[in-house]
Amino acid sequence: MLRVFCDFDGTVAQKDIGRELFTEFAGTGADEIARQYLNDTITARECLLAEARLVSGVSPAQLGAFVDQFTIDVHFSQFRDFCLLRDIPLVILSDGLDFYVQRILNRNHLADCPFFANHLEFVNNGGVAGLEVTFPYTDSECLFCGNCKRNHMLTLSGDDDIIVYVGDGISDRCPIHYADIVFAKKDLIKYCQQENISYFEYTTFLDVQQRLEILLTKKRLRKRREAEMARHDVFMQG
Questions:
Q1: Which of 86, 83, 84, 102 is nearest to 94 (CA)?
Q2: Following CA atoms 38, 15, 147, 211 in sequence, which dihedral angle do they give, to the nearest 10 degrees?
């Protein structure tokens, strides 16, 4: 079976909503925290926790109104339908926050599209509204990501499945090592080239759909040896 996993920020959503959100509500301090994350000096978990601590006095309604301005890839809904018609499971894997992922999916009539993300809660800190981030999908041996995309991919896939991954940035570097077919754009292209990982370049999900249609029609779907070995190694270690 073919299985598709994809990133959310900058992939399904046209912008990195997590970055935009903390830039708006956490002030200039969020920019420095983000730079440290992009430079690999802090982990994704450390980044989210530090950014959340900078936010105060923000209500769910305010955050929701801010999130509502962002749009998704205009071809993603069509791609979701493409997968449904062919019984291809599609799962969104985000190292962002469930609050905005769920809200944007709901607003675009995609509430039934399964996703995994880090959890955002609104808390009261001494009478001041604040944010708290928790990580229900961490990996005990990986300290970098908040939401372990690799583990979701391996848990939801079988030995005979061919895994497709669609992404664009830092949080996608790990999971593409375990994917048979990789779609990359932006910084992820550079990483694929550095790591010698074969990939298809894409701009929108229409590109992904058209390429998969060709591979399905010509029966060129096959496992990537390096990815298959990487998945095998994980299970052997477990």
A1: 102
A2: -110
Q: Which residue has the tokens 């994704």?
A: 44
Q: Are 224 and 174 in contact (CB under 8 A)?
A: no
Q: Report the residue count for the chain.
A: 238
Task: Tell me how far apart the alpha carbons of residues 153 and 205 are, in angstroms, rounded to a whole number.
Answer: 20
The overall longest dimension of the chain from CA atoms, in Å, is 62
Q: Give the predicted TM-score (pTM) of the model.
A: 0.96
How far apart, in whole angstroms, are the C-alpha atoms of residue 175 and residue 163?
10
* Residue 15: alpha-carbon gap to chain centroid: 12
Please give the single-letter amino acid code of residue 164.
V
The 10s digit of each residue's pLDDT in 179-230 is 999 999 999 999 999 999 999 999 999 999 999 999 999 888 999 999 999 9
Q: Which of 238, 237, 189, 205 is nearest to 113 (CA)?
A: 205
Distance CA 7, CA 215 (A): 21
Alpha-carbon distance 218 to 73, whole Å? 27
Domain at 2-237, CATH from 3.40.50.300, 3.40.50.1000, 3.30.450.20, 3.40.640.10: 3.40.50.1000
The separation between CA 58 and the C-alpha centre of its own chain, rounded to angstroms, equals 25
